[in-house]
């Protein structure tokens, strides 16, 4: 409450993603000074090619990658926090619904049969949503939608798609297999403006929807019975939130591959920083998710002589951080 | 508000839990549903707050059939306090209590300053104002129960339904909770609670409903309904009565205690 917490929120919501975005854009084989960025925008608009090389690097390579990283982190942060809340389970992530395995199968099918660049995205997106719908369909027992059944259904659907994925990898040509594996490792480095144009509208729709519904997300975290007693239509609102989360996650995974840990760690990190304020959790998860992935990707592209897949960095940074946070906050979960 | 129940029947799969229950509960009272485990107390309570949909029969609040009321309007009239609440995340107490304002909010709406004010008043009303900023994961069982009652009060209901509000509480907290309920009933709220202890039911409630095997075996003023024979019949336990002449404000108090069989 009060001035200090408002200032802290402001810092978190605005400064963290903006500063990490700038950091991400400026760091690289060809470092850019942050001060040159306004100049580049002005030159771009006035068609001045004084800094032609910098313009090329900034607009064609750095900016799309940074925007995608931010969008990915934001979508994962919000979807992770929403799902953990409505399923009352701090270990759930959007991937629990089978979205990642679905997307992987979709991409693998397209890559194994050489269907061309954008049909990979279309196929991954379709299969990601298909997996999420399958999870929802299986988990609906007699009109009710319990959290346990959703998580179990997600595990079953993930296993099913994992099996299919293995089958595809075994039967595919070796060069296609390596394409599949590198697709799955996360590929922010291959992101183009086309990817961003395609994935931004559904991702933003999902993110915005969840943030707007954040009070309902909070009430659902009290459990089905209590939410019902508070006048909430539990099954309908759970489905709406799961659909929004699936939409956001599927669209960013489609563009950038499967990057783990952001979705799991962001909500916990957020709760540790801002507490469990139900009004702030989702907006803060959005900012922190974006910031976390921007930092991870900055490391991914600059920490070693060649690029490390960002999914690997996110896992390597995320796992110890997560363990540390978990041990520190164990008492809050009654452990 | 008056609750009218007509021929209420409920089955869990094929097991009957309520058989043709009919009842009229007048407003502004503390009514206790007493009965052994599995007698249908909780089922009856959950049928009243629409958490369970009965197989047959009707429940009216005043003249209104409850299943015809829109769900958020229903929640503006009926507050429910669950027996067990496991806080999923360390929310602050005030945030939990302001959850009771949800029936007054549209889907995209956040609680306003006024809603937080109502929540604070609800906490004050039951003497828990000091808990407002504490995380609910660090409360004692008694405090958590009171916080949940405060959340139901923030709904500003006409009826308060509680599932075993005194269970798993220590001696003192039991009395605190029951006194809070007593005060709310004196203030005009209709309070209906399930209870395990015949003496607590007899001491604090106005009316008592005795239930056994999904049926109502007795319903009436607490001191008339609860007696040695009724309790013996309800629980199948040999009991005896001790009378206290000058209890509290010079009331006569009867306590029913089990006959101990020691070798």
If you had to describe this structure to a student in words, what would you say it looks like?
Chain A is built from 14 helices and no strands. Chain A is globular. In chain A, helix 3 packs across helix 12 and helix 12 packs across helix 14. Chain B has 263 residues and is an alpha/beta fold. Chain B has two domains: 224 residues, P-loop containing nucleotide triphosphate hydrolases (Rossmann fold); 36 residues, no CATH class. In chain B, strand 9 and strand 10 form a beta hairpin. In chain B, helix 5 packs parallel to helix 6. Chain B is globular, with a radius of gyration of 19 Å.
- The helix content of chain B, as a percent range, equals 25-40%
The main sheet of chain B orders its strands as 6-7-8-3-9-10
Briefly note the structural class of the backbone of chain A: mainly alpha
- Under CATH at level 1, the class of chain A stands as Mainly Alpha
Query: CATH-wise, what's the superfamily of chain A?
Result: ABC transporter involved in vitamin B12 uptake, BtuC
- Overall shape of chain A: it is globular
What percent of residues of chain A adopt helix (DSSP H or I)? over 70%
Highlighted features:
heterodimer, A: 335 residues, mainly alpha, ABC transporter involved in vitamin B12 uptake, BtuC, 0% strand, B: 263 residues, alpha/beta, Rossmann fold, 2 domains, six-stranded mixed beta sheet, four-stranded antiparallel beta sheet, 12 strands
């Amino acid at each position: 409450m009060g001035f200090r917490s408002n200032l802290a929120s402001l810092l978190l919501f605005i400064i963290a993603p903006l500063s990490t975005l700038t950091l991400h854009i400026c760091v690289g084989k060809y470092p850019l000074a942050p001060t040159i960025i306004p100049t580049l925008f002005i030159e771009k608009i006035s068609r001045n090619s004084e800094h032609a090389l910098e313009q090329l690097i900034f607009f064609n390579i750095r900016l799309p990658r940074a925007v995608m990283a931010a969008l990915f982190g934001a979508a994962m942060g919000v979807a992770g926090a929403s799902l953990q809340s409505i399923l009352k389970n701090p270990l759930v992530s959007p991937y629990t619904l089978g979205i990642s395995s679905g997307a992987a199968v979709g991409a693998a099918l397209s890559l194994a049969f050489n269907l061309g660049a954008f049909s990979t995205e279309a196929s991954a997106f379709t299969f990601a949503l298909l997996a999420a719908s399958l999870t929802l369909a299986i988990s609906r027992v007699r009109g009710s939608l319990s959290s346990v059944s959703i998580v179990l259904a997600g595990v079953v659907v993930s296993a099913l798609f994992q099996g299919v994925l293995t089958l595809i990898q075994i039967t595919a040509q070796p060069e296609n297999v390596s394409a599949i594996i590198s697709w799955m490792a996360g590929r922010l480095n291959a992101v183009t403006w086309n990817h961003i144009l395609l994935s931004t509208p559904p991702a933003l729709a999902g993110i915005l929807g969840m943030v707007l519904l954040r009070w309902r997300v909070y009430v659902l975290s009290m459990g089905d019975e209590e939410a019902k007693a508070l006048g909430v239509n539990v099954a309908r609102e759970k489905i709406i939130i799961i659909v929004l989360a699936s939409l956001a996650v599927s669209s960013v995974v489609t563009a950038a591959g499967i990057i783990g840990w952001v979705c799991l760690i962001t909500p916990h990190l957020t709760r540790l920083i801002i507490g469990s304020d139900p009004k702030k959790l989702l907006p803060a998860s959005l900012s922190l998710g974006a910031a976390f992935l921007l930092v991870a990707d900055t490391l991914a592209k600059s920490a070693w002589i060649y690029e490390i897949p960002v999914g690997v960095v996110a896992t390597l940074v995320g796992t110890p951080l997560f363990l540390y946070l978990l041990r520190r906050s164990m008492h809050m979960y009654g452990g | 508000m008056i609750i009218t129940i007509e021929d209420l029947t409920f089955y869990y799969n094929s097991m009957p839990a309520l058989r043709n229950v009919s009842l009229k509960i007048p407003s502004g009272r503390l009514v206790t549903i007493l009965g052994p485990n599995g007698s249908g107390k909780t089922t009856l309570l959950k049928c009243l707050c629409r958490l369970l949909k009965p197989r047959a029969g009707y429940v009216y609040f005043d003249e209104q059939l409850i299943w015809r009321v829109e769900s958020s309007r229903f929640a503006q009239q009926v507050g429910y306090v669950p027996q067990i609440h496991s806080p999923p995340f360390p929310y602050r107490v005030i945030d939990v209590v302001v959850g009771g304002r949800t029936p007054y909010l549209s889907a995209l709406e956040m609680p306003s300053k006024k809603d937080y004010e109502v929540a604070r008043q609800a906490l004050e009303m039951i003497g828990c104002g000091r808990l407002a900023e504490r995380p609910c994961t660090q409360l004692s069982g008694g405090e958590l129960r009171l916080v949940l009652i405060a959340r139901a009060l923030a709904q500003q209901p006409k009826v308060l339904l509680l599932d075993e509000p005194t269970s798993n509480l220590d001696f003192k907290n039991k009395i605190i909770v029951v006194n809070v309920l007593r005060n709310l009933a004196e203030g005009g709220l209709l309070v209906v609670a399930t209870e395990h202890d015949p003496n607590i039911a007899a001491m604090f409630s106005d009316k008592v409903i005795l239930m056994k095997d999904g049926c109502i075996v007795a319903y009436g003023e607490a001191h008339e309904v609860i007696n040695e024979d009724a309790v013996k019949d309800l629980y199948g336990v040999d009991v005896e009565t001790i009378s206290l002449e000058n209890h509290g404000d010079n009331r006569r108090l009867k306590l029913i205690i089990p006959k101990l069989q020691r070798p």
